[in-house]
Amino acid sequence: MRQKLVIGNWKMHGSLAANAALLEGIKAAPARAKLAVCAPFPYLAQCQTLLSGSQVAWGAQDVSSEARGAFTGEVAASMLGEFGCGYALVGHSERRTYHGETDAVVAAKALRALEFDIVPVVCVGETLAEREAGQTEAVVGRQLQAVLDALSIEQLGRIVLAYEPVWAIGTGKTATSAQAQEVHAALRARVTAKDAGVAARMAILYGGSVKPDNAAELFSMSDIDGGLIGGASLKADDFLAIGNA
Ligand code: PEP
After folding, report:
1. Are residues 2 and 225 in contact, defined by beta-carbon separation less than 8 angstroms?
2. Which residue has its alpha carbon closest to ligand 1 atom 1?
3. For 220, phi and psi rounded to 5 degrees?
4. Residues comprising the binding site for substrate?
5. Residue 123 CB–ligand 1 contact under 6 Å
6. Hey, what's the signal peptide range on this chain (predicted)?
7. What's the pLDDT score for residue 190?
8. Which of 89, 111, 182, 222 lies 20 to 30 Å from 207 when distance is taken between CA atoms?
């Protein structure tokens, strides 16, 4: 039985005051799922301080594929690891779309995070045009395959996968639980082809307009192990309600 995991992606939102109120709210109540928040880089130290001693983990929204050097604006996994960052999103569709991240770069980022004991949350997902063209499984399969090819079985056992249909992110349109389950099962089957034990243990999260009122149905599906939550992670009550769904 895999424990449910619910990760908030704050995207480029927040302020010191707003984050403090949000984190206090999240810490105040218990959740059935394991919770984590992925904050903008300048606020990671605040998360480290305010979440210390709590059950809530924290992470970054990106990490460099490079170890160090002349990469202005990039943040190295070693820097995140140095102060205890638990997770890093890699390959979020907004990074793939606006920053041209390729499957190979995403795999390199995952490897770099693992090197410093940071759990990479590898995001995959198809656009609406790709879904309508019947290419969903081919697209997410290709995105996942780059990671499967780059990682050893031991490394694969330390990642989290997130299926986020691009057409459902921030749009209010959610995949039905059946649509999401179908893709999650296909993703798990691909991991099974590499290692059945790793596949059985791997958390595969769903992301895309998850809200308190649709989370329970999505999370009841056999291959959906929790959620990656954007908009609804900015309200403590909503985030907690999803964590208890
Ligand atoms: C996301 O940014 O990963 C996401 C799923 O956003 P939202 O929940 O707002 O659709």
Report:
1. yes
2. 230
3. -80, -10
4. 9-11, 170, 209, 230-231
5. no
6. 1-20
7. 98
8. 111
The Cα 219–Cα 195 span in angstroms is 24
pLDDT digits (tens, 9 = 90+) for 151-209: 999 999 999 999 999 999 999 889 999 999 999 999 999 999 999 999 999 999 999 99
Pocket test residue of 124, 229, 235 for ligand 1, highest count of atoms within 8 A of CB: 229
Give the separation between CA 210 and CA 99, rounded to whole angstroms: 25
Strands annotated E in the chain: 5-9, 34-39, 57-60, 87-90, 119-124, 160-163, 204-207, 226-229
Asked whether the predicted pLDDT for residue 72 surpasses 90, the reply is yes
Alpha-carbon gap, residue 50 to 54, rounded angstroms:
8
Q: Which two tokens stand for residue 210?
A: 């998850």
For the cut 90, the answer to whether the pLDDT of residue 21 exceeds it is yes
In SS3 terms, 130-179 reads as: HHHCCCHHHHHHHHHHHHHHHCCHHHHCCCEEEECCHHHCCCCCCCCHHH
Per-residue model confidence (pLDDT) at position 233: 98
**230 Cβ below 6 A of ligand 1:** yes
**Residues noted as catalytic:** 92, 164
Q: Given 3.30.70.240, 3.20.20.70, 3.40.50.150, 3.40.50.300, which CATH number is that of 57-230?
A: 3.20.20.70
